[in-house]
Amino acid sequence: MMYKNSIILLIILAFTQSCVSKKKILYFQDAENYNVENIVYENSKIQPNDILSIIVTTPIPEASIPYNLPTLGGGTFSIEALKLQGYLVSEDDTIDFPVLGEISSKGMTTDSLQNDITKRLEEGGHLKDATVNVRLLNAKVTILGEVMRPGTFSFTEQTITLPQALGYSGDLTIVGKRNDILLIREENGIRSINHIDLTTTDWINSSLYYIKPNDVIVVNPNNTKVKSAGFIGNAGIVLTILSLLLTSVVLITN
């Protein structure tokens, strides 16, 4: 009888350990306490190895032709084709621009580079009433760990948020550690590792809310998953073994 009670107790404990508290699953649990603030959109700085699309237009189209790269592939406008004919930012933060020559992009955003080229064209007497459009073509974010679809995802939007990025990967799995997401970021030659608690709203008004190109998001498994990933494997196998033990004890004691 004592053996039966011990096995039953072990089974109950196994079920208890395999359960995950809703406090570890629900997002933004303090949403009702969130203070509404004005949204500040932050344009990311241009980094070495970025690929830029820079298009110059003028009221007289023929005038801007020398200031644009030739179109490859018979006018194909897929993202991959555009990358091949874009401007690759060198390791010393420069691009080689038609007619104007080498231009530094160090510390600039796409908007500020856009304004800089426009100013050079007009003040240098190259073009009048020129419009310059600069876009980043190879923006991407890598998401690893306990998500439905780990991988590297490209995006063309000027800004995306961390929740949007996690949406690209199909959201966290049920065993993803929501209260300690790792965000690895490289900016201005500095690498940082940031910890984010998705169960709160504390971080929404910080610089971590918006994804920057080349960010890496890591979702570690929660304690329940870690405990079940050892020699035995998972809670289901534990319960199967305990059930067999219970059956054996019952047969022996009877």
TrEMBL record:
Domain of life: Bacteria
One Pfam family from the record: Poly_export
The keyword DNA-binding is assigned to this record: no
Transmembrane spans: 231-252
Assigned keywords, A-Z: Membrane, Signal, Transmembrane, Transmembrane helix
Residue ranges occupied by any Polysaccharide export protein N-terminal domain in the UniProt entry: 43-136
Protein name listed in UniProt: Polysaccharide biosynthesis/export family protein
Organism whose genome encodes this protein: Aquimarina addita
